[in-house]
Amino acid sequence: MLRAIAVVALAVGPGVPRAWAKPARVVSIALEPSEDKIALIPGDVRQIRAVATYSDKSTEDVTARMAYTSAKPEVIAVEPSGLASAIKGGDAEVAAYDPVSGKSARTSVKFKVAKLKRIDVEPADKVVPVRRSLVLRALGTYENGRTADVTSRVTWSSDKTSIASIGAGSSGEILLQGMAAGKAKIVAFEPLDRVKSDGDSGRVVVVAKLAALSIEPATLSLRNGQTASLHALGRFEGGAVADVTSYVEWSSDAPLVAVVDPGGALSAVGMGRAPIVARDPESGIAAVSGQGGATIDVLGALLGVAAAPGGATLPVGDTLQMRALAIYEGRDEPVVVSDGVRWKSSNTASVAIDATTGAVRCAAAGSALISFTEMETGTSSTATGGDARIACVADVPTVRVAPAKKLLAVGKSANLTASLLLPDGTERDITLTATWTSSRADAVSIARVGDQMRARGVAPGVALITATDPVTGTSSAGAQGIGAKLSVPGVPKVLKIFPTPTGSSGIELANGVTTLLKARVDFEGGANQGANNLVLWASSDPTVLRVSNGEDGKQPGTATPLRPGDATVSIQYPKPGGPKPQFPPSQPMSKSVKVRVR
Predict the structure, then answer these.
(1) What is the per-residue pLDDT across 232-249, written as a single tens digit (0 to 9) for each?
(2) pLDDT band at 6 (very low <50, low <70, confident <90, very high)
(3) Can you name the CATH fold of 302-393?
(4) pLDDT band with cut points at 50, 70 and 90 for residue 586
(5) In which residue ranges of the chain is CATH 2.60.40.1080 found?
(6) Based on the number of CB atoms within 10 Å of its own CB, is 145 exposed (0-12), middle (13-18) or buried (19 or more)?
(7) Helix (H, G, I), strand (E, B) or coil at 591
């Protein structure tokens, strides 16, 4: 590149020409980035930039003309453009030389590439029918806590190829092929860091004989034109369960109401009710209405809306969750509307309400009409006569059950207590005189044992426990009461991260605004458990987003955006090296979600 030349006028008399100064020369060259050590994992890339400083104090980007060398090309490979790529774990420095000026960069760029420590084979639940295939993925965990998809970096093998073999799909994906009924172990081996997958995460079960089919969700209400996804679950002899959505033949018994494509994608096309069937073409076993099938209700025009409960009396300071009910053409039962509703109170001084959620709080004695508007159509509960009247008073007795929420293992028991809270502020123990009921006695039973009331876990499920005072008739199930929700967890089924992503870009966070992500384990039977302290949190790019595991004094799951960009947050359950959870899975589970920092 030609540089500007300084011009100096020599004042030596008329007619003397100007003299041209010598061109500026390169004094030094600096390389960027200039951190002490740049932390990477294999597969990461960083652009090195070279800036020359001239004798006239000017600077110039000379990245493109430099000659770059890596001290350890097996760790960091560098292209002529200055693009550095991490290959394997280790430390390496990149130096640069300018062939134009003959000067070397005064410093090198130092890299630390984390070594691979662990490989997990996903999905966690590897059950595949004979003659069917399952896409596998290898998730690597590095010594710096980051995780990344290392599927393309590993070699795959099966210890019993006659039962389960490994091959490549038409798009290059890794396929596990079920060959014969039995058990096998799949190993993913990364040759550079010489790490192989954990034995438990590679276990696979190949099943042969299908016993039953079911569709999830079993019931669904849609508006005309809406879509949803259905999943088929196959239960095989021996008890194994596998997702067979792509293996079955889907059909709708009412195609003028709803249609379903070969992948389980459902579309509502007309008002009415449509039974959905999933059929296994090999065995002929089908999930039909009443036997594991799904029933889809496609709703017609909105006829009216109403707030529920229609009336309630609450003590000052108490709260109540309102529900928005809607009646649609073609359906007799009301539908609970959870989204797109705007709530309003006629007297916010006494009855405050969250406009979005419908949560009511009694702030002072008085009453109010509670109304809402369904935003899509503009229909209001006032117009259809569906407003609710809420009264806030200071002299209503209430019943409180403790504990309000608890997880119970099958066969384990917990003590229950019931208290009657009187208007004068006193409290009376009614544990032994109250009438107790369980909404799911098949899941949680209640019995008196001596001078105690005990709840016992019977089978996986969720039960609402109610206590009623026989003297006043007051119940914990009333709007002002506090009941108990006891859950009996079955086998851990799903690992989730909240908030739920809103689109293909995943969760969106604002740069610099700390957010607490939440992990939850859902169990068979409907129970769930917060798991922020039970999982290992990791970010694929800590320079974009850092996620705490509690080591920095922050709550586990605290996400700190550092700069705009994309990262993947992943969790492992149970936490490697951590205490064994109360309800452990049969094999480790993992979940990841994309995060975009704006």
Answers:
(1) 998 888 788 888 888 899
(2) very low
(3) Immunoglobulin-like (2.60.40)
(4) confident
(5) 7-113, 116-207, 302-393, 398-488, 492-597
(6) middle
(7) strand
Reference 556, options 145, 115, 121; nearest CA is: 145
Q: Which residues contact 443 (CB under 8 A, 6 or more apart)?
A: 457, 458, 459, 460, 461, 462, 463, 488, 525
Residue 354 identity: D
Q: Which two tokens stand for residue 328?
A: 């649609």
Query: How far, in Å, are 169, 176, 197, 589 from residue 206 at the CA level?
Result: 19, 10, 20, 19
What separation in angstroms does the CA of 33 have from each of 28, 45, 352, 490, 567? 16, 12, 54, 51, 20
Classify domain 7-113 by CATH architecture.
Answer: Sandwich (2.60)
CA-nearest of 129, 260, 297, 140 to 204 is 129
Residue 334 pLDDT more than 90?
no
pTM to 2 decimal places: 0.45
Closest CA to 573 of 528, 508, 542: 528
Own/partner pairs for 135-138, CB < 8 Å, 24+ apart? 135/169, 135/173, 135/174, 135/175, 135/176, 136/166, 136/174, 136/175, 136/176, 136/186, 136/188, 137/174, 138/188, 138/197
